[in-house]
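> forwarded from #structure-qc
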């Protein structure tokens, strides 16, 4: 059983940057980790996914440019940096773990374990 805990959300102004953290704990099996978001009334979106070893990353085409995923294996933490935030980035951001490839995880929005989410609100 894995536990994922997101942190770093909050209220930010348009144009600012924000880094979210996903701390992973529990059974030591290598999983791909992905970041997803869901805004009210909208479907869940895959943002970025990283392979179990942290070497490979995948971003859906719609998410390329302002999002950067990274992993600190020593801290068992995966980060999502969001640059030039826009009001439309307002959503609950989740991280998830998947026993599979990072690309399929992002494309299929697939996760075996999910965190509780962290709210990001972009507003002036």
């Amino acid at each position: 059983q894995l536990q994922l805990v997101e942190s770093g959300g909050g209220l930010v102004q348009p144009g600012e940057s924000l880094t979210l953290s996903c701390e992973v704990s529990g059974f030591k099996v290598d999983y791909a980790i992905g970041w997803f978001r869901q805004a009210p009334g909208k479907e869940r979106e895959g943002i970025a996914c990283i392979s179990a070893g942290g070497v490979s990353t995948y971003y859906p085409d719609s998410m390329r440019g302002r999002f950067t995923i990274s992993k600190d294996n020593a801290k068992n933490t995966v980060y999502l940096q969001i640059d030039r935030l826009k009001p439309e980035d307002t959503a609950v951001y989740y991280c998830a773990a998947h026993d599979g490839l990072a690309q399929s995880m992002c494309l299929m929005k697939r996760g075996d374990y999910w965190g509780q989410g962290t709210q990001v609100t972009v507003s002036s």
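QC bot note: Residues 102-108 form the longest helix (7 residues). The chain is about 5% helix and 50% strand.
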